[in-house]
Amino acid sequence: MHAMDLTLNEFGLPSDMLVWQVVLLTIISFGVGLLGGFVGLALGTMRLPAMLLIGMAAPIAGGTNILVSSLASLTGAIRHFREGRVDMRVVLFMGVPAFAGAFIGGFASDVVDEGVLLFLAGLLVGWQGVEFFILARNRRKSGSQHLFGADLEGSPGIFSRNRITAEAGIGLGVGLLGGAVGLILGSIRLPALIRILKIDPRIAAGTNLFIGFFLGALGFVGHAVQGEVDYPLLACMGAAAMVGSYIGAKYTGRASLNTLIASMGAVLVVVGVLLVWRAFE
Predict the structure, then answer these.
(1) CA 179 to chain centre
(2) Is the entire prediction scored with pTM above 0.85?
């Protein structure tokens, strides 16, 4: 047998994946984890297209990817938590509704066409990315410390009743959408955290990953029950994503706020394009 045709089955592992495919996806998973840990996103929307492009069945790719996202979120969140960049108030006000929404959304996945949901999510995420670019550019030009109308450098956030209500509503809505399409969708939660609560983007990044871990774990259960997981691939991609995310989170606190916001903008634009692309598959 040619080396390029070797599968994991040849090594006694329950997977039909070719060895070169697993190696490639593991490398991609590390790189995506590194970037995701830095900007505070699980970025499953960047891993999933790569898995689909090499020929994985969509249900298996989705089920495997969602736990990889959860594991990447976990290690990144641990680093952020240790360095004081996780706000438990945000987890309570936005995370808990998101968990409930994801649970309900999983049962409602057949009610609305998935392509429509992904297309709308992609447009929203992409536009948020463009806005982040504009804000970072304006900040550099003016030298202002003000973004979204507030000084976000070290900002603990504004937790008024109206803002908390809006954030909880967004958390529930994003959870419903994510549960329906099988994605964590931290790329929608992150801009909302910064825009509505006016919280330091570094704290938003850490808290968003913390919420993402639990959402991914909840979403994984349904896939696992239906046998839609490639466990050997999960082990390789998950380990690489965890290491990458942990390293990436280290640089969140070291980068300038402008660099972090511009990076978030770039990632959100790419994720938005990928979501729209997937909507038309």
Answers:
(1) 13
(2) no
